[in-house]
Amino acid sequence: MPEPTGVIHDIGYQRYTGPRLGRRAVFGALYLHGLRTAFGLGRSAKAKIFPWLVVGIVTAVAAALTAVRSQIGETVMTYAQFADNMSWLVIFFVAVVAPELVSRDLRSGVLPLYFSRPLPRSDYPVAKLLALATALWLLLGGPQLVMFLGAAFTSGEGMRGVWNELLDLLPALLYAGLWAAVFASVGLLVASLTGKRAFAAGGVVAVFLMTTPIVGTLSIMPSQTVNELAFLASPSTLVGSVGAWALGDLLVPEGQSGGGVPIGGFGPVYAVAAVLLVAGCVALLLLRYRKVAAR
Question: What DSSP character marks residue 99?
């Protein structure tokens, strides 16, 4: 009978005895990883091309507006108008980034690994949502800060000019936060429905762009009330209408053409609708991941 030839080697496996950081550290790691993923940090050069192209475009526009204002001495575009005019780029940014944040994990089947740890089911989607919202806010708020620095220190009015510019900037940053919250909640919900990134990206674009013709159709209906409520039909026009109602002259200064979204006295309705849209998308997102975790 041949003698056994197998050998058991002691390769020094030991139990982990270091600190266990817990839920807060796991949530923070998910959030930070999601934020880095949004801008392609820590990934291949190919993954950095689109997000940093968008960052370059919005920053270049802000720098150009600042340069023109310093030459002519007049405001070409307000901080809030900048957020409105860059919203089309934000749509495509969300369409690319949201699937990277959630669709990849769905397709690769790594969610059971996340949920095998003491991680509440709600923490994963909330961390991803906050990461995307932060990325969008930085995308809009960073160029606004460039515009502020250029305008504040070339106005020739000293600290008074800086203060006046700051009073215009702060509401615009809140407005950028509204854009970020709405676009992130809607985009991440749509992306979480499929593990195929191409389908997720197409779905995000469709939700934002395909709803715009509905607004146009309702805007020409014979009923004035329907015309004034038409902008509820699309997330983009919904946010723009809230801005027009809440910011007023900060969005379109008095005497500047192109102002006035025809929403009548329904401004509060639009504000409530925006809050309900974000809350509804977050609730559905949590429900979606509760079902995923139960599989």
Answer: I
- The average confidence (pLDDT) of the chain is 86
Q: How far apart are the first and last CA of the chain?
A: 50
User: Residue 104: how many CB atoms within 10 A of its CB?
Assistant: 15
Radius of gyration over every alpha carbon of the chain, rounded to an integer in angstroms: 24
* Alpha-carbon distances of 137 from 144, 185, 287, rounded to whole Å: 10, 13, 25
Closest CA to 233 of 219, 243, 220: 219
Report how far residue 288's alpha carbon sits from residue 282's, in angstroms, rounded to the nearest whole number: 10
pTM over 0.70: yes
Closest CA to 138 of 234, 39, 259: 39
Q: What is the DSSP letter of 41?
A: T
Tokens of 175: 């407005």
Angle between helices 87-98 and 197-209 (to 10 degrees): 150
SS3 call for 153:
coil
Between CA 96 and CA 98 the distance in angstroms is 6
Rounded to whole angstroms, how far apart are CA atoms 288 and 278? Answer: 15
Q: Please provide residue 214's backbone torsions phi and psi, each rounded to the nearest 5 degrees.
A: -65, -40
Q: Is the CA virtual torsion 145, 148, 154, 160 positive or negative? A: negative
Residue 116, number of CB atoms within 10 A of its CB: 8
Residues 101-159: pLDDT tens digits?
988 888 877 776 777 666 778 888 999 999 999 999 999 999 999 999 888 777 666 67
CB-CB contact of 83 with 144 (8 Å): yes
Spatial separation of the C-alpha atoms in residues 272 and 276, rounded to whole Å? 6
